[in-house]
Structures are given as structure tokens and as C-alpha cells.
Amino acid sequence: MTTIIWFQRDLRIQDNPALKYASQLQLPVLPIYIFDPKEDKNWSMGSSSRWWLHYSLQSLQKKLKALGLDLFFFQGATLHALQKIIDKVDAKHIVWNYCYEPSALMREKKLMKLASAKKCIAKGFHANLLFVPGQMTTKQGNPYQVFTPFWRCCLKQEIGKPEGKVTKKLRLATYSKHISLGALDLLPHIPWAKDFPYLWQPGEDNALKKWKHFLRSKIHQYAHERDFPAEMGTSMLSPHLHFGEISVKRIFEDLLQNTHAEVFLREIGWREFAYHLLITFPHTPSKPLRAQFTHFPWKRKAKCLKAWQKGMTGIPIVDAGMRQLWQLGWMHNRVRMIVASFLVKDLNVPWQEGAKWFWDTLVDADLANNTLGWQWCAGCGADAAPYFRIFNPFTQGKKFDPKAEYVRQFVPELRNLPNSWIHTPHLSPKSVLEAAGVYLGKNYPYPIVDHDLARKNAIQIYHQWTKK
């Protein structure tokens, strides 16, 4: 008679209601993780996320051993694996924390039926968001599609306290037919991942350490510094949150006690809004929420897309962002908006192409947030940016990287240009370029598009389309 605890994206010990519940049942506990690379054929886990997952699971396994437990790994079709495990250990209970993605919720419904047929008590818990997505509606009973009234409604609701952490030793159930973490083959066979450990240390302990440091040293400056990529004034918690290494309830409770928390708290609200939209409109990862954009006249520009991906557009702030993404698996949020606007508005490339690239390269790749962000920039989603809001990448660079520290870090071929010209090398006097060792078209490209002309074209197209 065994209790199975099925870990998904709740890779922590503290404030883990499924683990807490399992610890109270007084049965041997079998902690499991199942990796199914084909689970969602459209959104199978990207390379950077797989890197993070490997080390996060490694950390969780170590934390569980301190409780007298272990973490058993399995690979293959999730429901098939769960059925075999339930049968093998004569499971009395199976518990987990909900993963709020459309395919995951469908899988969990099927698990409920499967467990019921086998006389196994199945119980899911709400652990990774403040609110159950899709439940907030307007007074008319419609789903919210604008953030501010959605978040105002959320803040009127009661939010439960964090569960705390399990500290007592538990009895470990045995299971022989499992595989090792290494056998999951999560680590990407690509050279750029070698730089990740310099910036990232996955796992619950590091998530909590980072959060405490942010609260102590950065949150009082967050409202201002979060827009300046060279300052690194953000929390850098996004991948920890995505994999559930830190509880959002813990973050929310800490923020309520901090007088500088309002702006950061709204960012937590946007995360909730993203999941609300994903569950309410499950088609949106690949299709626009606003139906009139279904046949929008995007252009398939393979060369421009490749230049954007490689950070070779000739637009310094865009190239810096794309190279930061490639080197570190992460990009500053302000720059994410700049590069996204450039792809969909200046280059007229479909937002889905940008979403796919982010999905594969970001360590914090998150289906809900990725979808919301790209549809916002493309103007085809909920609470979307107005079609005439088109970021000027040159002025954005000058405003938010005034000393060009960010550009110099990630676009080193421009590092010797003076601040007055580094964001617009194509406008620089030839003598300035030569003195800095910059030769346009040779060691740094000319801009692949004329921004002013592209902006006019985009406004014209969007203006016509939004009338439909």
C-alpha cells in the first residue's frame, strides 16, 4: 500500500501541498518524475528548459533524500507509465500539483479516471499559481481580456497561506524498474549551454537565496532599474518560478509586507493573467486570440528571421538582446519587448516564429507567458499593444542603455564606438567607424531594414486590418 507523489513543475519541498498531504497519510511514499518528450508534440520542451530541468531534478532528489526519500525517474508516455506504477506498487493514493496547461489538464483528467478504475484515490492540488486560472469573470460572466480589471478582481479574493515544509522523515516505497536521471538525456548536446552555469544555479535552495537577496537589496530600486538591461535590476526568478522551485504564495506573502512591492507585485499579476488567458483560450499558443488576425498578411522572410535569431540585424540593442539570449538562455524583459516588436512590426515576420525561438532558447520558457508576450507585441491578443505602438529600437537603445554597457557586453565588435554613435553605427561618420575598427558590411552588418519606412508600412497594414 503506497502513496505515489507525482512531481511535474513543483520541484520543491517548501509549500508543496501534494508532498505535505502525502506525508500525512502514514504510508510508504514513492516520489516519481516522468519525462515524455512527445507529450505535447507542438510544444515539447526546448533545449534550454531541458538543461534547467536536469539540474532542478538533481537538486530535488537531494532535498528528498534528506527526508528519507528518493526521486524515481521514468521516460515515455505519462499515462502508460502511471498505470504501470500504480499496478506495481498497489498504490492507495496518487497525489500531484496541477500543471495549468491545456494538454496537462487533459492528461490529469484521464489520470483521475484511470485511478478510479483501479480503486486508487487520486488528488490534485493547487500549488503553482495564486488563483485557479479561468475562474475569474466579469460581472457579466465573461472572461477578462484586460489586465487591470482582472488583477483588481484577483486582489479582492482570499489567498491561502503557504503550507510550510515537510521536515519529518518519511518511509520510502521501493520500485526497481526505474531509470537514472542521466538516462533521461535532458542535457542538450549544443555548445552554448556551457556558459549557463556562470549565471544559473537551478534548484529550490538557490531560488530562495536569490529571492531573499532581491528583497533585501534590489526591490526598492526595481520600479526604476527594471528597464535598464545593464543594471540587472530584475529578480531573475522566472525560471525558478516556472519549474516551481519557489512558491508564488511565498513570494506574494513577502511582497505584502514590503512597501516597495507594488510594481513587482503587478508582474506576478501578469503571470496570473497569462495563465488565465491560456486556460480560457487554449488555442492561443499557435493562433491569435483576436480572430480577425487569423489571416494577417505576415511575410515569411527566412533570411531576416535568421539574422534576427543570430543577432546580426545591424540594430545594436536588438543584436545585444538576441546574443544575450543565445549565450545565457535569458533576455532582459525590456529588451524582449524591443526584439519582439522589431520582428513582428519592422520585419513583418509572424509572431509564432518568435514564440518558437524563445521557446527553444529561454531557460524560463513558459507557454502562458510566452504566448501572452508575443500576442501582446503583435497586437493580436488580450490587452494587446495598440497597433501604432512600434518600438523605435534606436531610441530605445539610447534611452535604456545610455552608456551602452549592455551593447558593449554582447556586441563586442562595437565596443570602441563612442556612446553618441554606438546605437546608430549606420549613421556614424566614416572616420568614427574606422577609428573604432567597425567596418559595416564586413565585421558588423548594415541594418537589414529601414525602421522609419518599416514603421509606416506596419501602421498602414495594421490600420487596414483592425477595421475588419
TrEMBL record:
<dbReference type="Pfam" id="PF00875">
    <property type="entry name" value="DNA_photolyase"/>
</dbReference>
<dbReference type="InterPro" id="IPR036155">
    <property type="entry name" value="Crypto/Photolyase_N_sf"/>
</dbReference>
<dbReference type="InterPro" id="IPR002081">
    <property type="entry name" value="Cryptochrome/DNA_photolyase_1"/>
</dbReference>
<keyword id="KW-0456">Lyase</keyword>
<keyword id="KW-0274">FAD</keyword>
<dbReference type="InterPro" id="IPR018394">
    <property type="entry name" value="DNA_photolyase_1_CS_C"/>
</dbReference>
<dbReference type="Pfam" id="PF03441">
    <property type="entry name" value="FAD_binding_7"/>
</dbReference>
<dbReference type="InterPro" id="IPR036134">
    <property type="entry name" value="Crypto/Photolyase_FAD-like_sf"/>
</dbReference>
<keyword id="KW-0157">Chromophore</keyword>
<keyword id="KW-0285">Flavoprotein</keyword>
<comment type="similarity">
    <text>Belongs to the DNA photolyase family.</text>
</comment>
<protein>
    <submittedName>
        <fullName>Deoxyribodipyrimidine photo-lyase</fullName>
        <ecNumber>4.1.99.3</ecNumber>
    </submittedName>
</protein>
<dbReference type="GO" id="GO:0003904">
    <property type="term" value="F:deoxyribodipyrimidine photo-lyase activity"/>
</dbReference>
<feature type="domain" description="Photolyase/cryptochrome alpha/beta">
    <location>
        <begin position="1"/>
        <end position="130"/>
    </location>
</feature>
<dbReference type="InterPro" id="IPR014729">
    <property type="entry name" value="Rossmann-like_a/b/a_fold"/>
</dbReference>
<dbReference type="InterPro" id="IPR006050">
    <property type="entry name" value="DNA_photolyase_N"/>
</dbReference>
<dbReference type="InterPro" id="IPR005101">
    <property type="entry name" value="Cryptochr/Photolyase_FAD-bd"/>
</dbReference>
